[in-house]
Design a protein that fits this description.
Number of helices: 3
Order of helices and strands: HEEHEEEEEEEEEEEEHE
Shape: globular
Largest sheet: 12 strands, mixed
Helix content: 10-25%
């Protein structure tokens, strides 16, 4: 057999091998819609839960708007009709014995409320049933508050461009002035346990504005802050979001300082207005809430990127979707 014939036979065999792996699959199955939950238990605050229907690609509702000016009102009507679940049976069990029934709150159409007020150390289990849906369940523990000690505060000058204007691409957010509050704080992390945190640093100022014969108060605030500390570094956040810098996350754990004192510095842009101050809140969060927040931060930068791999939001709801988490917080108010 000639070499040319051998090459032809080889190419035909290779082509047959490649094409024989191709198979078309027709999908005609249906996925059931389920219950979505959002609930964060906070010590000292009455426990509430938001319940809604989660749609699938098979039954996602559509709406035709009569006029563009009716977009929000008609969309809200659609949500209330198709998404709200107002007949669920919700039971909360605390520490394995105390039981509370949650009731639907028609004033807030997604909310269920009860008399239970969480305390540090409580173990919470929730069971939800509703006609036409699978029963769902979830549990969480109220974490002990970890304190943030304010070591030092300093007001420093940092140029913010044209005072009071919107500055496109400014990493320290918008509607600020040429002053920054630099805050050094310390965490005493407990040893022998994995702890999870979220830090909120909110700059606030207020203005009284006239409206006819009355005046009303308007607040200028921003949760955006910056820091060069490694605990806020997250390589998954490859793009900025809003005024948050790329690679920056205010959700972190203690793997770099487990059982140690850890000191770091953050900066918050001074707000344009009267009575400027900073609200600093160190939140000790449950592990499930940590994973949910991390996944959400990646999700929110991926929704408009057609080239990015789809991101699934973390959920701890058995047979459903969403999050049941907890947070305890230590809050400080620092005035300029």
């Amino acid at each position: 057999m000639s070499n040319q014939n051998r090459h032809i036979i080889f190419l035909i065999s290779l082509l047959a091998l490649l094409t024989s792996c191709e198979k078309e699959i027709d999908f005609s199955g249906q996925y059931d819609s389920g219950i979505a939950v959002y609930a964060i238990a906070v010590p000292g605050e009455p426990f509430s839960m938001r319940l809604s229907r989660s749609f699938t690609v098979n039954d996602n509702p559509t709406v035709v708007f009569s006029h563009y000016s009716s977009y929000y009102s008609e969309l809200d009507t659609l949500y209330r009709t198709e998404i709200v679940i107002n007949n669920a049976q919700v039971e909360v069990t605390v520490n394995g014995s105390e039981k509370y029934a949650m009731t639907y709150n028609p004033v807030s159409p997604y909310a269920y409320n009860c008399d239970y007020v969480p305390k540090e150390g409580d173990n919470i289990s929730v069971k939800v049933s509703a006609p036409g849906y699978h029963d769902i369940s979830a549990s969480t523990k109220i974490e002990k508050i970890q304190r943030a000690q304010i070591v030092k505060t300093e007001v420093v000058y940092k140029d913010n461009g044209d005072d009071g204007s919107i500055i496109v691409g400014n990493p320290l957010d918008r509607f600020g002035v040429d002053s920054v509050m630099s805050i050094t704080l310390k965490i005493n992390d407990p040893a022998g346990e994995h702890n999870f945190y979220r830090l909120r640093v909110c700059g606030v100022a207020e203005k009284e504005l006239p409206l006819g014969t009355i005046t009303y108060k308007q607040y200028n605030l921003s949760d955006v802050f910056t820091s060069d500390d490694i605990i806020f570094s997250d390589n998954m956040l490859t793009k900025p979001f809003g005024d948050w810098q790329a690679g920056f996350s205010n959700v972190f754990d203690d793997h770099l300082f487990d059982g140690q004192e850890y000191t770091f510095t953050v900066e918050s842009r001074k707000r344009n207005g009267d009575n400027p101050h900073v609200i600093l809140e160190l939140q000790t969060i449950s592990q499930d809430l940590y994973y949910f927040l991390k996944s959400y931060q990646v999700f929110r930068i991926s929704t408009d990127d057609v080239y990015m791999t789809p991101i699934g939001l973390y959920s701890n709801i058995k047979d459903g979707w969403g999050i049941l988490g907890s947070l305890s917080y230590d809050r400080h108010i620092i005035y300029y």
